[in-house]
Amino acid sequence: MLDAASDREAVIAWFARKGIDPRGDNRPTPTADAYIREVTRVLLWAAWRGQALSDLSARDVLAYKAFLVEPSPAEVWVSNDTTKRARAHPDWRPFQPGRSSKRAEYGLRVLNDLLGFLAQAGYLQANPAALVDLTVERSKETEAAASQAQRGRALTRKGWEAIKRYIDGLPFGTEEDAFQKARARWVFHLLYTLGIRISSLRGRFGEIQPTVIDEEEVWVWSLEVKGGKRMVLPLPFSVLDEMQRFRLTLGLSRWPSADDPVPIVPRARAHNGVDEKPLTRQALDHLTRRVIQGASRRLAEQGEERESERLARASAHALRHTAGTELADQGASLRDAAEALGHSDVRTTQRYSRAELERLRSVLEVRDTRW
User: Is 348 a domain residue?
Assistant: First the structure.
């Protein structure tokens, strides 16, 4: 039985079961951050209705389902833009513009998990979400609006070109300057070309290896993705070119061996070689923010105030939105490539023909991402 005297204590117990400390000082993982966000939303919604978790019925869960699809009143619940703000900020809202059925279903799954745990632990008599269909259907008009909002989170062509110019203009007079500049270029190229999450950049070069398919060599990256899972992604030629460029800057061979311990994004370049510790997630966030804000300032100096303001609101995740948007515009889907090769071991790609792997790589080649 759960020894909890309030919803707050019960929710904290659920977080603890998942290894999450919502009150801790350490930055949460993306998954933990998503759980905290969804639970915050449902607790605020229940409080707004004058209810506790123990008051919720199946009818209330249905009402929350409708609310997740279209939070109302919008002025109370939805931000005017996609800028991330601290909760103490007067313009903070629980939701950003552009809801999707997928996001609403995710919120319902988190609620179902929470209520299921509380029922199993004896805090609730039953889980009311278990009686509700958690799938969400939306009209074409609403989905189109959500898609348009996602496009609004993507970088414009001017924004991306400004980032490249800013990085190209970084100093390189010393060995450390050259390392910092090369690392920034490598990080942004990976994020922009592959559309991966920034958390996937903490692997090692040994995870990038060739595999022979029908007597042809294809380079693939076995990278860690959301939830600690791994997927195998065939690398487009532009990424292979940039990888060789970066490795040569580090004083390494062009191609990594299977036991190469060097991080994909090293923390530093030591005097006697490359630091074998990867750049932390917090440091990666700092690197991307510093470059984006620097590029934004340059745009402002050039009189591009509107583009500058839009870029200033962007984050590393905007590069993921950009990749998805541009691929969709080209008639391709990054999700298709990711799901098709979402295997746990590079060797499992042997089941694919060379033509299939080349097709998957061509999905990522439809955009001209050369620097």
Answer: yes
